[in-house]
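Quarterly update from the structural biology core.
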Amino acid sequence: MSRRPVPSFDISPPRGERVDAPQPVEVDPPELTAAIEQGRADAAAGRVTPHAQVKAWLQRWGRGDPGPAPRPWKSLG
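Predicted structure, tokenized:
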């Protein structure tokens, strides 16, 4: 089985244009870290949205009519 060639892309800036170095990005800002910790605590406590509901909702996105999002969580405990 032969592999198709991988396309290459020229990401060089146009001639004569200067490109500034990328600015450092804070990997985990405190708000993100707090949200992740809260999500993990919710999951550990059984406060989750069932997979089937999320899957059905995302499949509706593909049809252009996602409708309302599933309820935020359902206690499994």
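The beta strands are 47-48, 74-75.
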